[in-house]
Amino acid sequence: MISRLAGFELEIIRRDSHAWWSLLCLAALVFLSFASTSFDAARDDSDKRAVAAAERARWLGQGTKDPHSAAHYSIFAFKPSPTLSGLDPGIGPFVGQSVWLEAHHQNDLLNRPLQNATLLQRAGLGNPASLLLTFAPLVVFLLAFVVVAQDRERGSLRLALGAASHPSAIIHAKALAIWGASTGLLVLPAVAAEFVLAAVGSHLSIDVFTRLSLWFALMAVYLALLSAIGIVVALRARDARIALAMLFGFWIVAALVLPRAGSSAADTVRPLPSSQIVRQQMLDEAAAYWTAEDTALHKVQLFTQYGVTRTDDIPNFRMAELDMVERHSHQVFDRILGDFYEKVASQDRLFSALGFLSPTIAVQSLSASLSGSDFSHHHDFIVKAEGYRRALVNRMNADGMAHRAEGDERHTNDERLWAQIPTFAYTAPVLGSATGTTLPALGALLLWLVGTWLLLSATARRLRP
Amino acid sequence: MDDGAVLVLDAVSINFNGRLTINNLSLKLKPGEVYALLGPNGAGKTTTLNLILGFLTPDSGAIIIDGVDGITDPTGARARIAYLPETVMLHPALTAIENLRYFALLAGRKIEDATARRLLSDAGLQAEAHGRRTSDFSKGMRQKVGVAIALAKDARLLLLDEPTSGLDAGAANDLSDMIRAASTRGMAVLMATHDLFRVKNVAHRLGILREGRLVDERDAAAIGPVELEELYLEKLTA
Questions:
Q1: Is the CB of residue B82 less than 8 Å away from at least one CB of chain A?
Q2: For residue range A436-453, what is the model confidence (pLDDT) as tens digits?
Q3: CB B167 within 8 A of CB B175
Q4: Band (B2; pLDDT cuts 50, 70, 90)
Q5: CB distance A159–B103 less than 8 Å?
Q6: Could you list the residue range(s) of the whole structural domain that residue B211 is in?
């Protein structure tokens, strides 16, 4: 019976021009932003693949040279677009997409998509997730106003209550209609299109399918709890006008103010050092160039390591020194950047815990995580790219160390060695392996869902005209 | 206690803010009986209907509707009641047929278009209005749809709250016909009203409510229109 009643409520929504056109306009905007974001991601990935292939050819064709010079000549690594970046690019536009892998340096990523962003994208509204998070509450509340507050104000709810054998069915049908209309028009088309694109593009793995299903479920839950909030307020407010004012206020606070205030609060409570300070600290502790005094110190360390007393007793003293300095830098980078990334993760955890204040914050955190576009996933790329860099540099240095060279003499090698370095192929983490920072948001969202539906059920049970 | 009665109110009382709005009200309606509850504004007529509908819970007393306890099982009791508020407010975006099907569905009855058209015609709504949205319906037309909703529910008890208020003479007359028809079908009818003329016209019994108390109760046939008016004024000013 509830689904049949919901059918009538949907018809009421469809015939209300304000509600219907608001819903359709947002649905069109969400879908167009999905198409635009997906197109950009596909084009960027195609470009990245082409440049990565050229980079590989450049690496292989660099000719005969000293392996350590080859490690400096090195190569770019490219970050593929996250799994569901068409739905939620997350921090993608704000972080680099490629990294120069060279000896002595763990470089920052370059080429941030935001550098080429449109006006809408620069405003943070150029993707489906941000549009849904920001504007879906407004549209859902408008639907609640039409099918509940106006119904109550007009008196048709009183007639319905007098006619109903199960009054709570009226409210559940209204909730189902609002949720069905908003989910069906705002979320489903983009998710279905993403599914088709993944299937056609042959990257519909179990992980992608699971992420896509969960992202759909996440947005469906978000719209369900917004529907419940809209209905409860519309039923409990003194009249329709006050209900509308309260819902409008809730939208401003929950969807606009709190996510921004939460972000600022997380930044204040758990501040990050500036990237310049971090970079300088790394240079201070692991310099790429060193003095004669440093070399003297290195000599002592290498004599101890090799158990010798003369540089000539080390097959390739220069390469051994470079290798020692390189390995020292790994420890320095791990300590300094590890601390920095832990602070970022801690800030993310705090922000996601603020989901207890606003469901928009909780959904924002979870959406980026499910889409593979949050910091945890980005960090995974950084770690894997850095691992590749270290393996490459270590292999080059090892080749140099294995060949005797004295004084200014240089051991050289060629494509046979360069080809031993595999092509960099990044595989994003599977769902669950990089979602730790969003667990508080999941708890918060569940609490919101249970709380609002309990409130809705209680309101429905005590429904009076 | 119910003796086959469709509605039994037994010593029902409710108070709001320390004031007894309904005071020890007892009332019994048999199948097919039309009972008019008379009284000025604030006498407790609408409160009585809300108690019967289960929208309010009495502080004391019993309410039985067609054998179902209206206090412990308001949902079960409400399933046996058709209710027409003073102003029947339909969904303006839906047609008369859609409104009827929607409200019938709420009562657990799924009706087809043809049945809906027949019920609307039985309630006196012209065929050309059946498929029109109700946004521009007059009060009388909405009342007829409301009657069709009541008929569709096939309830045992029909509650009418000021049913003729704001209706023109023709529409009020149509409503009287409908009440008689409902009575003939065996439906008990309780109408809260000011309309003494209509009461005399359709009711079998009448009761006068004042400050929540039933101060007089008569057979409608045993009293003339002028006497009824005199009695009403006397009871209100006594």
A1: yes
A2: 778 899 999 999 999 998
A3: yes
A4: low
A5: yes
A6: 1-80+157-238
